Amino acid sequence: MSAPTVARADPRFDPAWRELMSGSRGNLFTSPPWISAVCGTYGFAPQCRVALDDAGRPAAGFAWVPLDDLRGRRLAALPFSDRADPVTPDLATWQVLSAEVVGEPFTLRCLDTAVPASDPLLSAVGTAAWHATPVDASPDELYRRISAAARRNIGVAQRSGVRVEATTGLSGVHRVHALHVGLRKRKYRLLAPPRALFEGIWEAFAPDDAIVTLLAFAGEECVAGALFLVWNDVLYYKFGASRPEHLALRPNDALFWAGIEWAAARGLASVDWGVSDLDQPGLVAYKRKWASVEGRVVTLRPAGVVPAGPREIDGVLGELTRLLTEESVPDDVTERAGALLYRYFC
Fold first, then answer.
1. Are strands 47-52 and 5-9 parallel, antiparallel or unpaired?
2. Which of 66, 151, 199, 258 could connect to 164 by a Cys-Cys bridge, CB 3.0–4.6 Å?
3. Which of 136, 117, 135 is nearest to 127 (CA)?
């Protein structure tokens, strides 16, 4: 069997890449609008390799971003993405696509059922949980499928007067970002992605009516919000946050259920809840409540390749993050710090 013809391209603009990722094997994080939003925000220059069949049509593909900054030279497939599963029918094709990167400091996140997970040249260095809810029944049946705890919490939110509003405008995206900055600062002592990323995502997906923000209100106060994106008949939950003083109203349960209803009303196939670190069992358990399918996402790196760069910078970035997320630091300073430093957390 002859080796496939492989073409190099920019996944933001290449029509063959778009065709491949618009098929059933593509996902949000390998889609041109997502790659455009991330790379446009941080000034990255993505690359991809597309294998063509005998008729010259795309049959397989793999994308990555070369990084060269204060953390050293490395390749990421793809930065700031839950997973970026390459589209490939078999190990032989994958090894042709990845031939020039497996000897480099390189990171790939994909489902553990994806072809690269079986590559003997790669080693798994991390595992996370992944969840999705099939939307393959009526809303009443979907409601019966979710856990009793989820139904109780939805009832609490309704009796407490929590209402959920859907918006496709940029103002809703700004609200979710503001909530996200506060949540990451106070609950996790982490910086948030820059507001420019959220705006770039909106600009990339809004023309196709593929972005919706769900906001939960208690009275006139916005107490929680979630940003969802659509790609290939799947609704992806990407960012969400809530005000801790209102958690007793269960606004997050109201938002998750509203997301399932929104997907059902539009005839989508599923809701993808993204990845959760296994050292966050509470978050994993929360996503299991939604009649979800569960899988594993593995982080892969070339076996025997030592990451390049001055590793002491990781400690410096960690200490800066701790300092800039102290309660005494104004939220606007924390937000600006995230805009400055977040690009290095990949």
1. antiparallel
2. 258
3. 117
One-letter amino acid at 174 equals H
Amino acid at 304: G
pTM beyond 0.85, yes or no: yes
> Among all chains, which residue has been given the structure tokens 């700031």?
80
The tally of CA atoms less than 13 A away on the side-chain side of residue 335 is 15
Query: Within its chain, how far is the Cα of 292 from the centroid?
Result: 17
Averaged pLDDT, groups of 10, the chain, 346 residues long: 81 97 95 98 97 92 95 94 96 94 92 97 96 97 97 98 98 97 95 98 98 97 98 97 96 98 98 96 96 96 76 90 96 96 94
